[in-house]
Write a structure and sequence with these properties.
Elements lengths: L2 H21 L8 E10 L5 E10 L3 H17 L22
Antiparallel strand pairs: 1-2
């Protein structure tokens, strides 16, 4: 499988996820930001990315909320095997997990 085939398959899966949200009638509440990319380096060492992406966001405020969440969870992931400490993770973001 080459890079383009891989990214095409990932894109199909992202479409399936959106269809799943419709099936379960949560599409009006779904908030997601997905980016899947492959890093490419040229002979000079410069990098570029070949990527597929999907955003399901209402506005820039939701984008900011999800970016804040991503940054927080990335910083909190640490090097331990237990994963991040999720207590208080979403404080102030307007995102609630039930």
């Amino acid at each position: 499988m080459n890079d383009d085939e891989f990214l095409h398959k990932v894109n199909e899966i992202l479409i399936d996820i959106n269809e799943l949200a419709v099936k379960y009638e949560v599409e009006d509440r779904l908030m997601s930001a997905s980016v899947y990319g492959l890093i490419e380096r040229d002979v000079l060492g410069n990098t570029s990315i070949k990527a597929v992406y999907n955003y399901t966001l209402e506005d820039l405020e939701e984008l900011n909320d999800i970016l804040t969440f991503i940054i927080k969870t990335y910083k909190d992931k640490g090097d331990d095997d237990d994963g991040p400490d999720l207590s208080g993770l979403l404080d102030g973001t307007g995102i609630f997990l039930n």
